[in-house]
Amino acid sequence: MNIRDRVKLSLYSEQLMKPAAAEMPAKTTGSKRMVGSQTDTLSISKQAEAAQKNAPSLRSQMNGVQFEIYNLYVDRQRLNSQIDETLRESGISLSESEHLTLHVDGNNRIIVEGIEDEQKRTRIEAVLNNSDKRFGARLLSHAELIGEQNGTPLDKEAYEKWHVNEFLKTIAGLSLADVSLDEKGELEGGNERLIRVIDSAKDPKSDLEKSFQNMLKKLKNVLAKGPDTIADRSASFGYAGGTLIDLNVSKGFSAGQLNEWLDDPFLKEVLLNNS
């Protein structure tokens, strides 16, 4: 899945979530806030789309491969800056000798390793797992795009499992563990909010009839396969000096790693000038 495909998927997901939030009863303000934070925080691919729109003259000088690399590097710089700023605003500073490893699991949770001060490690995890920032989800997407640059295709089953779980969490405050299939292959479990979604999928007057149908079909597919049989999305990055470092890849996108493999003089000059 290339950047353009991810842009479409991101826009689709955003369109899907907004009406679901609008239909929620007033007492679910917490869930509304969560939906708002998801739609307010741009995904990695959507940021890339914005970069493309804002740089038409630069785009005209690049081929498709060059511009994908450019977008990834710009996104990397943005993530570096936002993570560093978030840590600083929380009163957390890292010395030059502190080299962390950030692991992200399929629930978007970031786990920090490589720091001896347990209290500091716990504080860093709490800051990075702030749901408003969505660093975990963004790092997962970023890692997959980096993987594609290194010849690793997207694990579509793992992504679909993550996607339907996020769908359940956003529109109904549920997870895959809360729902199952009955003998007829229909959904059971859930709550009133999920029932509203199921009803909307059957309503030809609903603007999101087909979108909900598509998501519910994906949900049933995941449940039929068995969520436990499908791998979770995951990612790991090094982090030092305010910079994310790609691990176990030949094409890394930190400034230091980029110099090791990028042999395009024009692109290298453009990227390093945007550092």
TrEMBL record:
Any one Pfam family match given in the protein's UniProt record, by short name: DUF4885
Source organism superkingdom: Bacteria
Name by which UniProt lists this protein: DUF4885 domain-containing protein
Organism: Bacillus paralicheniformis
